[in-house]
Each structure stands twice: as structure tokens, then as C-alpha cells.
Amino acid sequence: MNTDLPLLSVVVPAYNEEAVLEQFHARMSALFDSLPRYRCEMVFVNDGSRDRTQAIIDRLCDTDPRVAGIDLSRNFGKEIAMTAGMDHACGDAVVIIDADLQDPPELIRDMLREWESGYDVVYARRTVRDGESWVKKATAAAFYRTMNRMSGRVHIPRDTGDFRLMSRRAVDALLQLREQHRFMKGLFAWVGFKTKAIEYRRDPRAAGVSKFNYWKLWNFALEGITAFSIGPLKVATYLGLTTALFAFAYGSWIIAKTLIWGDRVHGYPTIMVTILFLGGVQLFFTGVLGEYLGRIFNETKQRPLYFTQSLRPSRVDEVPVRAADSPLRQLPYGERGSLIEGR
User: What span, in angstroms and rounded, lies between the C-alpha atoms of 298 and 54?
Assistant: First the structure.
């Protein structure tokens, strides 16, 4: 094997993906076969699946030397599964992609072309999100608007998932960030480096069902906001200051009115509404403080991000070398994948 060829590592987090793993492997293998100028490996990360996902990964490791398998000790969540994959990916370029085939593996060819031209991060931006409800699309758009207004200097690209290619130095920089609450879209943006977007049409899942419901998406949004912004705390400060000024002005008016004209006992409904309103505001922002305090508590424990149950490295050096003097040859996207040129 010619170890002078650059190594491409494709990290694939998987949770209960038995229905699609073999189809994904077939399409990724076809892509690898079209890249003679690269050594290639797939790094599957089983995130505590309860189906046959790990058994399929083991079988792929046995039959394909380009497949590596990481079996986490339990379900740690997708963000940490991606981190585990990057920890064990040795590639000069590292790609993160989901196993559900909503993101076409063939788009990696275009990412490699941009990487070869000097970009450290090449991410895929969706122009169309097939298979998603209007509610999910609307809430996603609102989330990105909110995040970019609150996150200050860190700009998180809209309509962008985890599907991206990163150079070795970008991955090494990212892996220095070992925080427990890992909002990866924010961390990808935080490390910076020279970045390029490629636009594409996102397909429905090839098989299986999404593991995210609206409750999980809500918690995911909270994770992102509290990990990359102190905006909610600033809102509490400004609202508290505004309320205090209003209360001072209203109190001054009540005192002056009583001294000048006198006042009978009135205003019970007003008092109750005011007390309930201020009590609700205080409880809400006590909850906001609790969210930040809970994250500080988790970070101070300094626990490892994950544990592995088993680790099977790839045997990519056993793959025979083919002619590598030709440019990247074209590979059809298939019936489902489609690229929209957006450069």
C-alpha cells in the first residue's frame, strides 16, 4: 500500500440504523472506488443501538478492510458519537455524515476538490429539505436566526447540518474542545479556518425513522443557545432593570397621589396581577439561571466524554493500490442524490 497517498476518513455515527447501514456501505464503497488518489476508510460509531447495528458493523469490518468500528459503552448522544469518531479518525481529511443517506455520499467528491484548492472546512448547505414538515422547517429557520443574533462573533450557517469535510488541522483544533455539552454546529463554527459551502438538495431518509422528535429538538436548541450565548442572562438583566424603573416611577406616582388627594383602598385586582406577573418573571429567569448553573456543574466534574466497549481499526493499508495519476473521475449521484451547483 502506498502510504504517501492522503487518507480520507469518513465518520458515521449510527443509532438503530440496521435498516440502512448496508445500503450506505454500498454507496460509500462505490465512492471510495472512484477515488484512486486517496486511501479511504469508514469509521462507524455505534451509539448504544438496541437493534442489529453493531452486528452489521462487525460483519462489515470482517469483509471490508476499509471499515473501522467503534462501539460505545452506552448511548451518549450523536454529538459525543461524532467526537468519538473524530478521536479515532486518522485521515488527512475527515468527513462527518449520517448513515440515513439523506446526505448523498457522492457530494464528498466536490468537498475533496475544494479541500485540495485550500479550504480547511467544506460544509454542505441544504437548499431543499425533502421529507420534513413545514413545522420543522419553520422552527429550524427561527432557531438559526435566534442563534446568530445571540451568539455574537460566532456565525452558524443556516440550513447546515453536520455533513462536512474538515482538514487535519481543523479536526485537531476541534478535538481540543472537550466540553460536556457539545453543540457541534457551534463548535464547528467556533474553530474557524478557511471555509466553503456547497449547496445541495437533501433527500428523505432511505430507510428507518428519524431519532429526533420535537422535544429532543427543543432541548437541542436550548443546548445551542446556552452553550454559545449569555443572551438569556442579558435579557433577564434588561427586563429586571426595566421593571425596576417602572416600579419606581409607579411607586412615586402612588405616593404623590396619596399625599395630595388621599386614596381609599382600591386596586386588589391590580395588585394580584402585578404580583403574579413579577412572580412568573422571577421563576422563569430562575430557570434560566438553573440551566447555566447545571452546565457549570456538569463541566466541573470533568468526566470523560465517553467509554468504548470495543474498537476495531480499519485495515486500509491492506487495500491494493490502483492507478492514481488521473483526476477525480465523475461518479453518478444515483436516482436519489442530486447536486445543486451553488459556488
Answer: 29
What angle do helix axes 184-191 and 78-88 make, rounded to 10 degrees?
Answer: 50
Over residues 22-39, the pLDDT tens digits come to 889 999 898 988 888 888
Within 13 A of 86's CA, how many CA atoms are on the CB side? 30
DSSP classification of residue 318: G
What does the buried/exposed string (b/e) look like for 145-173 if buried means 16 or more CB atoms within 10 Å of the residue's CB? eebbebbeebebbebbbbbbbbbbebbeb
Could you give the strand order of the β-sheet that contains 7-14, starting from the edge strand earlier in sequence? 195-202, 121-129, 160-167, 93-96, 7-14, 39-46, 67-72, 308-312
Number of Cβ within 10 Å of residue 302's Cβ equals 8
Scanning the structure block, which residue is given the C-alpha cell 447536486? 339
pLDDT tens by residue, 97-144: 988 888 888 889 889 988 888 889 998 888 776 555 666 667 666 666
In Å, the largest CA–CA distance within the chain is 98
Q: What is the chain's alpha carbon radius of gyration, rounded to the nearest angstrom?
A: 26
In the numeric block, the cell 406577573 is attached to 277
Q: How far is CA 286 from the centre of its chain?
A: 28
Residue pair 311/85 in contact by the 8 Å Cβ criterion: no
Q: Rounded CA gap, 164 and 311, in Å? A: 24
Helices 268-301, 231-261: inter-axial angle, 10-degree rounding: 160
Could you give the angle at the alpha carbon of 323 between the alpha carbons of 322 and 327, nearest 5°?
125
User: Could you tell me if 170 and 193 are in contact, meaning their C-beta atoms sit under 8 angstroms apart?
Assistant: yes
C-alpha separations of 2 from 19, 80, 93, 321, 322 in Å = 35, 33, 17, 7, 10
Helix (H) or strand (E) holding 8: strand 7-14
Q: The pTM is what?
A: 0.67
Q: What one-character-per-residue DSSP string does 10-73 give? A: EEEEESS-TTTHHHHHHHHHHHHHT-TTSEEEEEEEE-S-SSSHHHHHHHHHHH-TTEEEEEES
Q: Is the dihedral of CA 159, 163, 169, 175 positive or negative?
A: positive
